[in-house]
UniProtKB/TrEMBL annotation:
Its main location: membrane. Its cofactor is Fe cation. It comes from SAR92 clade bacterium H455. Belongs to the cholesterol 7-desaturase family. It is an enzyme of class 1 (oxidoreductase). This is cholesterol 7-desaturase. Its EC number is 1.14.19.21. SUPFAM superfamilies: Bet v1-like, ISP domain.
Length: 334
């Protein structure tokens, strides 16, 4: 029997997952600055208030529909003006705070009823600024967060033992779940990335909104094989921390954010010990980052072109894909 290949483009028919997702690095949003954002198949605007708080609101002014992320005249080429704790619409000067309340209409004598009652008139997003990243909470029905992001000690900007974030990003043309499944797929290391063997999956745990894995690795060096490990942990579908040990300790914040249901943006932030960066290990430390980035490029060739099977034909040597998908399903809310 001949099994014909379907040449049509196959999209993953899964909804955008709910959870915490990175939209910016903290360093990308200065005090008094506003930036347009497009995530979750929606348009938003981030701004940092005079007091230093990062806020994210819906993009369109409820007055006449102007986009709040694009400034005019003195702000041309930048986001809208931020005055005090509010973002100012470039069309008519209406101002809104991070809670979605209109705080000022410069020419109005009689305020609209909702403004006079100090009601929320602009959609807002839950924001957390942690690990030098700005995160927002997405839920298709606007429900409040059900868990909190995890603070990573190595990513604290005041932790002098660890260096600055080394940031990289990728645009991936598939659903986030397809990218996340790599965490339980130790076999692909051999065939996609050309490792000497398949890492040993020592731990694969799924609990609540978290997932944890531990792979044992064998790293060939001129001095012989060095035993190492890759510990990876998910906090929901969008946030992950990966710790590489063995040659040079490296911490990776591996964050995935959905632009649309089938377009994922990957934010990778590497952190290494300050002492390693300043020592003879610096070249090795840089080589580790380059190698992981090369692996992402190799993975992307697969992700951008593969077809999603709801029931893949698995064998006993494959990873726990079924357990991963069962865990992931809690975030896929129609």
């Amino acid at each position: 029997m001949i099994i014909a290949s379907d040449r049509r483009l196959h999209s993953v028919n899964l909804p955008i997952p709910t959870g915490w997702f990175q939209v910016l690095y903290s360093s990308e949003l200065e005090v008094g600055q506003a930036k347009p954002l497009e995530y979750f198949d929606q348009e938003m605007v981030a701004f940092r208030t005079e007091s230093g708080q990062a806020k994210v609101v819906d993009a369109y002014c409820p007055h006449m529909g102007a986009h709040l992320g694009y400034g005019i005249r003195d702000q041309a080429g930048h986001g809208s003006a931020v005055v005090g704790e509010s973002i100012v619409c470039p069309f008519h000067g209406w101002a809104y705070d991070g809670e979605g309340k209109c705080t000022h209409i410069p020419y109005a004598k009689n305020m609209p009823p909702k403004v006079a009652r100090e009601e929320q008139v602009l959609g807002t997003w839950h924001v957390r600024e942690i690990n030098q990243c700005i995160l927002v909470w997405y839920h298709p029905h606007g429900e409040a967060p059900t868990y909190e992001p995890l603070e990573i000690a190595e990513a604290n900007s005041e932790n002098s033992d660890w260096g600055e974030l080394d940031t990289h990003s990728w645009e991936i043309n598939t659903h986030m779940q397809e990218v996340g499944e790599n965490a339980v797929d130790s076999v692909h290391f051999l065939y996609v990335h050309g490792t000497k063997d398949i890492p040993d999956a020592e731990v694969m745990e799924f609990e609540g909104h978290t997932r944890r894995g531990l792979l044992r690795t064998r790293n060939p060096t001129p001095q012989g094989i060095i035993e190492g490990s890759i510990e990876n942990q998910n906090i929901g579908p969008g946030l992950a921390v990966v710790r590489f040990s063995g040659i040079v300790d490296t911490v990776l914040l591996a964050h995935l954010t959905p632009v649309t249901a089938t377009h994922t943006r990957a934010f990778y932030s590497f952190i290494q010990k300050a002492s390693d960066a300043e020592s003879g290990k610096s070249r090795i430390a840089e080589a580790i980052v380059r190698n992981i980035c090369q692996q992402m490029e190799e993975d992307r060739i697969i992700w951008d072109r593969k077809k999603y099977y709801e029931k893949p034909m698995l064998c006993d040597g494959d990873g726990p894909f079924a357990k991963f998908r069962k865990w992931y399903k809690q975030f896929l809310i129609e």
